[in-house]
Give the backbone structure.
Amino acid sequence: MDWGSVFIDGILATIGPVTAAYAISAIGLNLQFGYAGLLNFGHVAFMLVGAYGMAITVDFGGPLWLGVIVGVIVAAFLGFLLGLPTLRLRADYLAITTIAAAEVIRLVARSSWAEPLTNGVFGIQGFADSFFSINPFPPAELYGIGSLVVTGRKLWVMIVGWTIAALLTLLIRRLINSPWGRVLKAIREDEDATTSLGKNVFAYKLQALMIGGAIGGIAGMLLAIEQQNVTPDAYLPQVTFILYVIVILGGAGTILGPIVGAVVFQFLFFTIDALMVNTQANIDWVGDLLTPAAAGQVKLVLVGIGMMVLMVFRPQGILGSREEALIDER
Amino acid sequence: MNADHPMYGIAAEPGVRKPDPVLVANALQRSFGGLTAVDVKHLEIQRHTVTSLIGPNGAGKTTLFNLLTGFDTPDFGEWHLNGGALVGIAAFQVARRGMVRTFQLTRSLARLTVMENMLVAAKDNKGEDLWGALTGGWRATEDANEVRANELLERFGLDHMSDEFAGGLSGGQRKLLEMARALMMEPEVVMLDEPMAGVNPALTQSLLQHITGLRDAGKTVIFVEHDMDVVQEISDWVVVMAEGRVIAEGPPEVIAKNRAVIDAYLGEHHGEAAS
C-alpha cells in the first residue's frame, strides 16, 4: 500500500488542466445558476460548440486565435438561441430546453450527416499545434518536486488554464459586485418584483445566459486544446451534472465557489480513484473482494457518499453563507 | 367634504370625469376562458389623491392592477398615464414611467439585504448595464442612492436593519420595506395591492399614515382594500368593483351609504359592524 502515490496522483489530477477547465466551466454555470437562478441543464453544450467552433475554424485553415474567437461567439450565440424563446416563460422551460438541446447538438455533431464539418464520431484532432509551438517549456522535460512532477507540455496548459480561470473570476467579481450583479441576484429572488422595479428581466437573463455560455465555451476549448482532440462523446449529459456538483459543492452564488468546488471535487474523485486501484492491487482481501472493474464502480459510490455527507453538514456549499441558505423563499 | 377638497363637487357615479386625471382607462376588458374578469368602461384617477379600490373577492381588482401595470395584457381597451398610452408597453417600462406597484403577497428579495433591496430599485444607475458594470464610474450614483435609501428606511423605521437579509424580516417589516422600495423609484403613481392584508392593527395604523404621507408628498396612491372602515379613514375617493365592472365610485361617506354597494358587496354584515 503506497499512500504517497495515492496522494500524488490525487494532487496531480487536482492541479491539472482538466480541473482548470472544469473550474472555468463552473464559473459560467455559477453566473447562470448561482446568481441569476437560471436552470441551465445543458451547460455541456456550450463547451461542445466552443470546442467545435474552434476546431472547425482551424480545420478549415483558420488560425487558432480566430478559432478561439469563433468558439466564444458561437457559445454566446447558442445562449442567445436557447434563451430567446424560453426566458420569457417559467424557469422550467429553460431547464427542459437546455437539457434536450445539449443532447441534440451532440447527436448532430456525431451524425454522418455532419461529417464534412465535424468528422462525425471520430472528431477533429491536431488543431492546437500553434498553441504548443509557443510553449516556453521544453515539452518533454519534467517540472516539479520529488515525484510530484508534470511534463513541460502539461505545465504550459495548466498555466494558461489557471490564468484564464483567475481572470474570469476577477471579471465575475467585478460584474457581481456592480449594480448589474445586484439586479441579477434580485431576479434570482423574484422576477415579478424585479420587473415591478423597472428592470428588464428578460434582457438580464439573456445576458447572463450568453456570458455564462461563452465562459462554458472557453472551458470546452481548453479541454480540447489539452487533448488536441474533440469528439462528440466527450460531451455527455453527465458533464453538466458534474458541473452542478462542483458549483453546489463550492457554494452556488459565491465568487470563488466554482474554483474551490472544482479543486475539492477533483481531489476527492482522483484520490479515491487512486486509493481504490492501490488497495485493489496491494491488499489481498480487497483484491479478492473486488475486480479492477468493480473497484471503479465502488469509487463512484464513495464519491457519491462523500458528496452527500458534505451536503448534509454544509448544504450551502464550502464557501456559501449558512445564514443565506437558511432563508426560506417566500 | 370641504370646498377645498380635490374631489369637491365631482358626481358620485361610475366613470365620472375628474378635473385632473393622472390615469385614464377606456373600455378595458380581460377574460379568462368564459369568465370576464375585468370589464371597465371608463375610469379616471385624480392626481394627488388616495383612491381606494374595493370589492368582494373575485371582483377583478388585482386583475385590473395587473392590466394597468403591464403585468397582464387586456383583450381590448386602452389606458393612459399622464396622457401617454400604455397599450403594449412592457411592465418594466410602465414602472420606469412612474407607475409602481406592490404585490398582494409581499415580494421581498429575500437573499438581498434591506439596503440592496432599496438600491436595486433606484432608477438610472449606469452600473446596471453590462458596459457600465465593466467600466465602472457608477460609484457616485450609488452613494447618492444610498443616502436617499437611508432617508426612506429611517422614515419607515427600518434603518437599523439595513444590513440584514430581507428574508429575515417579519411580515410587517417586509410590507414596510416593499413600500419604501417602491418609493425609491420616485414614482408618480403608487399602486398598493392589499397593503393591509395580514398585518396587525398597530402596523395597520402606521401603514395608513404612510399612505396619506405619500399623498401629501405629491404622489397619487391607488390601493386595493377589503375593509370598509380602513377605506373610510384615509380615502379621498372610492371605486367599487364587482364582477369585473365598476359599480360605483364616490367619496367614502357617499359610498358607505350607497345601496348598490351595500347590496353587492358589503351586505347586511357591514351594517352591523359599522353601527
